[in-house]
Design goal:
The chain starts with a helix and ends with a helix. 76% of the residues lie in helices and 0% in strands. It has a domain of 88 residues. The protein is an all-alpha fold. Helix 7 runs antiparallel to helix 8, helix 12 packs antiparallel against helix 13 and helix 27 packs antiparallel against helix 28.
């Protein structure tokens, strides 16, 4: 083994001589390189070799290659021989490793990535070997085909053979079919379109287009996803005149197979917006039929343009017309969502036709409401539009009330409540709130908060009475989520009535289920905001901490930490030791260590600094 490594090192002598001659490395660095390579060579010549042994050597040589490249830039000279020798060794290392670990696809990918830069002429062969092991992955076939095609366009025959082999193994692969389609489409676009073959009846481009159609027809029998065919149709738009007939085939087929798919109608409508009017396509096909010439023999148009130029407004009109037809044929919420989202996008993006697009949006929203299939997010848009109109308040309330009958979601209740608040319709607001309170439970909390904010903003005597009633009702609710409203009630009483009234209410709520540590912390915060620090206040303050310790002291160490901090800063320091003992005895065992740690940190933070 030692003799073999010595022989390998001897083969590296010319490299070391070049390093020394060109002063790429110092003598010490070269000696270190010799030692490093000897250790790495030893690893890959042992009987049991791992992937890591090879990768360590490859990483080292790659770093060496990068270092020499940097030295070239600094010194302004070329070291191609040295770099070529290292690259050859890395490639040889990859080949040897992949003989033993061919099942590791990532190694093949790394090898290919390196070879694309260092030895691109070898990449096609590497891909072929990889496919013999990893041909079960469709993306391996497309990666190989795309590399061959991009590296040398003259490889088109080899590319086609490669993709045909991939399709034999994966006939239903969308990725292979799409790549094959795209490549043949590019080739057809670059071909001669003049009729100069077979007695001047068929052009080179038409022959190549027939092959594109063949790939499409083949995929039609194996692929069942609409998204794939929409991608093909979109690819055809890059060559609009050349692919007129092909676009017709695709549209005709997907209309037959996917007529109930909202995505199909959405795609056809957006094509109208891009200038690809379905009527132009139909007229073109009618002319072909009238001429008596089979469409397969006339793969492209001889006319200057099949697609008529239209104004932006006319394209929008045609787009809207498709959507209107779509919601009649496919009466689902998804179809309405696509229609309304498209109208929203039009109103945002087409400023030159702003008035018309706003009209289209308004019509779509009205029709969507009538369909009873419009989503609440679009009702929010309708509400915003009507709310900004001086006379739209009543209409907004009417529409949202009707919508609530078939969509009693939280969002619809919020929209209706917001509309009623804008109209300041207090009786109806109270009626809606009463209904929510009876039917929605804890889920209705946001509506409670909105109604409370409304009555607080009104500020008259009747509103204050209603507000007090609502807060009292909220305090009686047993859902834990309503703790936030209890805290709001304490703040309201403290600031709008008196601290005494807030404290009295706290005494009741502190022992009324469901228990909430949030309630006690809110009361403490209110006391802290007061400048009054007399004995009764301190006593009441301490009681808040006692409540927290009683109800939450088993599993919340921070309760005790805060209690100790209170005694230290505002109460009686003598109580701190007793509190620490109480905490250690009451806390569940798993929380004691956390308490001790937090107490030590708090003690350090509170210690005076010299």
């Amino acid at each position: 083994m030692g003799e073999f490594i010595a022989e390998l090192q001897e083969r590296l002598l010319p490299e070391y001589e070049q390093m020394k001659h060109y002063q790429v490395f110092t003598a010490d660095q070269i000696r270190e390189c010799v030692r490093k390579r000897e250790r790495l060579l030893l690893n890959i010549t042992k009987s049991k070799k791992s992937i890591a042994d090879y990768l360590d050597f490859i990483v080292y040589e790659t770093q060496m290659h990068m270092t020499i490249t940097e030295k070239e830039k600094i010194a302004g000279m070329k070291l191609r021989g040295l770099k070529s020798s290292i690259a050859t060794r890395i490639i040889r290392m990859y080949r040897e490793m992949l003989v033993k670990f061919a099942h590791e696809k990532r190694l093949w990918n790394n090898f290919i990535k390196f070879s694309k830069k260092s030895a691109p002429q070898e990449v096609a062969g590497i891909y072929e070997k990889m496919l013999s092991y990893h041909g079960d992955d469709p993306e391996s076939w497309t990666s190989a085909a795309l590399w061959l095609y991009e590296y040398n366009r003259l490889n088109i025959t080899r590319v086609e053979n490669l993709l045909l082999r991939g399709l034999q193994r994966h006939p239903a692969s969308e990725v292979i079919n799409k790549v094959f389609f795209d490549i043949l489409l590019k080739e057809a676009a670059q071909a001669d379109s003049k009729r100069n073959l077979d007695e001047n009846t068929v052009s080179e481009q038409e022959i190549k287009l027939e092959r594109v159609v063949s790939v499409y027809r083949n995929s039609l029998t194996n692929i069942t996803h609409l998204e794939y065919f929409l991608k093909l149709l979109e690819a055809c738009e890059d060559y609009p005149e050349m692919t007129v007939n092909l676009q017709h085939y695709i549209i005709e087929d997907i209309q037959t197979k996917f007529s109930r798919e909202p995505a199909l109608w959405d795609a056809l409508a957006k094509r109208e917006l891009r200038g690809f009017h379905l009527g132009d396509l139909q007229k073109h096909m009618e002319k072909i039929e009238a001429s008596g010439e089979p469409s397969e023999k006339k793969m492209r148009s001889d006319e200057n343009s099949v697609w008529q130029a239209r104004s932006k407004k006319r394209r929008i009109e045609l787009c809207v017309l498709v959507y209107k037809t779509a919601v009649q044929h496919v009466q689902t919420q998804e179809m309405w969502n696509l229609y309304l989202e498209a109208m929203l996008a039009l109103s945002r993006n087409h400023k030159t036709e702003r008035a018309y697009t706003q009209q289209c949006l308004g019509t779509a929203l009205q029709d969507g409401h009538k369909s009873k299939l419009m989503h609440s997010k679009h009702y929010a848009t309708l509400s915003m539009i009507l709310g900004s109109n001086e006379n739209g308040g009543d209409a907004c309330v009417r529409i949202l009330t009707e919508a609530l009958e078939h969509d009693p979601s939280m969002r619809m209740h919020e929209l209706l409540l917001a509309a009623l608040i804008r109209n300041d319709d207090e009786p109806t607001i109270h009626k809606l709130f009463s209904q929510v309170r009876r039917t929605m439970g804890a889920a209705g909390l946001p509506l409670w908060e909105s109604v409370i904010s409304y009555y607080r903003a009104r500020g008259d005597s009747q509103s204050r009475r209603q507000l007090n009633d609502i807060f009292m009702q909220a305090c009686k609710e047993t859902w834990p989520e309503f703790a936030a409203l209890r805290c709001s009630y304490l703040r309201y009483l403290w600031h709008e009535h008196s601290p005494t009234k807030s404290r009295d209410e706290y005494k009741k709520l502190a022992i009324q289920p469901p228990m909430s540590v949030q309630l006690h912390r809110e009361m403490i915060k209110l006391i802290e905001s007061s400048k009054l620090k007399d004995k009764p206040t301190i006593k009441f303050w301490r009681n808040c901490y006692e409540f927290m310790a009683t109800y939450f002291g088993k599993q919340d160490p921070t309760v005790w930490i805060d209690f100790i901090a209170f005694e230290r800063d505002h109460g009686d320091i003598k109580n701190i030791a007793l509190l620490s003992q109480r905490a250690s005895s009451k806390l569940d065992p798993e929380f004691v260590a956390i308490f001790e740690e937090k107490r030590a940190l708090a003690h350090i933070a509170a210690a005076p600094t010299s």
